[in-house]
Every structure is written in structure tokens, then in C-alpha cells.
Amino acid sequence: MRPQLIIIVLVATCAISSDFAGDITYEYQDYKHIEYRDINDIEDKSLLAYFYSETCLYCKEIKQAILKFASTREYIYLVTVKDREVLCRYNKGSEEDIYCISGTPTLMKIENNTPILTIAGAQKVLAYILENS
Fold first, then answer.
1. Ordered alpha helix ranges (H), the chain
2. Quick check: 57 and 81 in contact, CB under 8 A?
3. What angle do CA 28, 30, 36 make, to 5 degrees?
4. CATH superfamily assigned to domain 2-131
5. What is the pLDDT of residue 90?
6. What are the 10-residue block averages of pLDDT along the chain, 133 residues in total?
7. What secondary structure letter does DSSP report for 93?
8. What is the pLDDT of residue 87?
9. What is the pLDDT at residue 58?
10. What sign does the dihedral 16-17-19-23 (CA atoms) show?
């Protein structure tokens, strides 16, 4: 099963990379950003929050794919992880900790202010994008 996943990810990466051979370059600053503490203030009942860091090599690898995906959706918000403030502290019961992550890149699906799906890692985020494009 593991070799099949690797092959699927490689094919997906090639497909996405070839899709960006054109002239369009997507930049983070062109998209809606929020602070992770402000996720509950968003009026959308269902949204995606993409947690990334400018220094994350994996985030850089999938940057064009995630931003192209974001360009076709109104309900995706980018959350810049500037330091370790968003990373899980395993402080159970804290309202802020419901949006904590283990690292970047992470894509979180949120419905009615409750995370229902957390996808961590570049390969898994790319797979989600392909399945939902």
C-alpha cells in the first residue's frame, strides 16, 4: 500500500507542477489572511484555514498549488505561522488550542467554529487539493 501512495503523490506532484508552467505566479500576499486567534470571528459557517510559514521548505514546495486552489475558492483563509505560537501545546481545555497544529503546512477544515479535519504535511495537503479540485 505504501508504494502505491508514493506513486500517487509523485504523479500528483508532477501534474500540479506541470500545471504551473504558464506565466501565472501566485503570491501569499494576494490572499485573505487571518490570525489563528481570529478564526472564530469569521462569518463563514464552513471554511478552510491553511497554516504556512515563509521559512518552511515544504510550504514553499506546494505554494503554487495551494494558492491556485485558493484562487478558486472564497472560503479559504491563510494563517501565517511566524513562530511557534500556533503549534500544539497540548493545553487541553483552552479555547485557543482547538486551532493548534503540529507543524506546517497544515490545512484545516472548520465547520461552525469546530475543526472537523486536519491535514498535515505537504503530500497530504496536495492529495486533498487534487481530490477537491
1. 2-19, 57-71, 122-131
2. no
3. 60
4. Glutaredoxin (3.40.30.10)
5. 47
6. 54 50 80 84 88 94 96 92 65 61 92 91 96 92
7. T
8. 66
9. 97
10. positive
DSSP track, 42-78 = ---SEEEEEEE-TT-HHHHHHHHHHHHHHHT-SSEEE
Which cell numbers in the block locate residue 115?
475543526
- Which uninterrupted H or E stretch holds 118? strand 114-120
CB 58 within 8 A of CB 101: no
Phi, psi angles (nearest 5°) of residue 92: -55, 135
Q: What cell does 55 get?
A: 521559512
Rounded CA-CA distance 87/83 in Å is: 9
CA 132 to CA 125: how far, in whole Å?
11
pTM: 0.76
Chain-centroid distance of CA 98 in Å reads: 16
